[in-house]
Design goal:
The protein is of the alpha/beta class and 363 residues long. It contains 16 helices and nine strands. The two termini are 45 Å apart.
């Protein structure tokens, strides 16, 4: 384990074709009231003036590292490899800190040696610098202490990592890295694994800005890749040692999200998940419900008949008294098309009763 410099904050900044905003991001670091920092900028194969802009700064605390275009996760790992500070902060090339961000977060961690990380509030802002909603308006919580359970449920505990400062030691001790296979959510995957081993504090202070614009990777990535990345996040989480410590409700929620929402239309992967020991550890009633829901979805999507029949049989084997599974099985064997019509009607009725999407309000 390499020796880290006490009180030094290492700020990682992956940068790809970031010429429009990167100077503002760097200036926000230079304006920090806390002076003990290093900024590790990883130029991820940019084809614009990103590298020239960064190289124009003479402050020795700014380090510029070049790599071939390899994606966000690899750039973050490159930054980790070159960091020397005992603390790790995050600043993307299109975001900004307020001047007191590092002073507040470092001060908190100095006063709370039992905490492995701290996060703050901030604002979303648009491509023209106009302030939008607060980060906290799109979060659950705030949560403090052992937040692993809440982070597993969804990525909205911290939101964008610009608000986070972590201790470096757990990263080294547990060999934590960003997964290059994950296009959307590598930071969620990383902080989920980090949260197994560390407790968090929260500061109710606005210390940063997260920019929302059409070139954000979340806007540029197609739906299929998003689902694949999020499914991989879920699959990895299920197999973490800390997963067995979670409440039954959270474990059920994770498997529902993975099997029903993220892996829809991918029956081979769904079968693999249902064979995991963590799935088999769920109560039989819950496994029966998940098999029935998987079958309903497969019927609507006209998946190979083998799968919905097999899943309905497994559902009934686990819970012979489930009249919904029994009715669905009989109807599907009698008339797959009639079954699909009934499921569509049921789905429309449920949709009318459901509330709006939790994060569809950021405009």
């Amino acid at each position: 384990m390499k020796e880290m410099k006490t009180s030094l904050v290492s700020i990682m900044m992956p940068a790809y074709n970031a010429e429009r905003y990167i100077a503002l991001a760097i200036e926000s670091v230079l304006a920090q009231s806390y002076p003990e920092w290093e900024l590790v900028v990883v130029n991820d194969g940019s084809s614009d003036a990103t590298a020239e802009i960064v190289a124009g700064y003479s402050d020795p605390r700014i380090k510029l590292i070049h790599q071939e275009n390899s994606g966000e996760a690899t750039a973050r790992n490159t930054a980790l490899d070159h960091m020397q500070g005992e603390l790790v902060a995050f600043l993307d090339a299109d975001d900004q800190y307020f001047p007191g961000h590092l002073e507040l977060t470092v001060g908190y961690l100095n006063k709370h040696p039992d905490k492995g990380g701290v996060y703050t509030d901030g604002y979303h802002y648009d491509q023209n610098g106009r302030l939008m909603k607060s980060l906290s308006s799109r979060r659950r919580g705030p949560y403090e202490g052992w937040v692993f359970e809440q982070v597993v449920r969804a990525s909205d505990v911290f939101g964008p990592p610009v608000c986070l400062v972590l201790r470096h030691r757990p990263i080294d001790e547990h060999e934590l890295r960003f997964d290059r296979r994950i296009v959307i959510g590598p930071d969620w995957d990383f902080t989920t694994r980090y949260a197994q081993y560390a407790e968090f504090g929260y500061l109710d202070e606005f210390t940063c800005l997260y920019r929302v614009h059409p070139t954000n990777i979340s806007f540029r990535t197609n739906k299929s890749k998003k689902l694949e990345s999020l499914a991989l996040c879920r699959e990895k989480t299920v197999q973490l040692p800390g997963f067995t410590r979670l409440s039954l409700e959270t474990r059920q929620y994770v498997f529902y999200d993975l099997l029903i929402d993220l892996l829809a239309g991918r029956p081979e992967r769904q079968v693999e998940i249902t064979q995991l020991p963590q799935f088999l550890a769920l109560p039989v009633e819950q496994r029966a419900i998940l098999f029935r829901l998987m079958a309903s979805q497969a019927i609507l999507q006209r998946t190979d008949k083998h799968y919905p029949i097999e899943w309905l049989c497994q559902s009934l084997e686990l819970n012979p008294l489930d009249w919904r599974a029994a009715s669905l099985y009989r109807m599907y064997r009698l008339s797959p098309e009639l079954c699909r019509v009934a499921l569509r009607i049921k789905g429309l009725m449920e949709l009318k009763r459901s509330s709006s999407l939790p994060f569809g309000d950021l405009k």
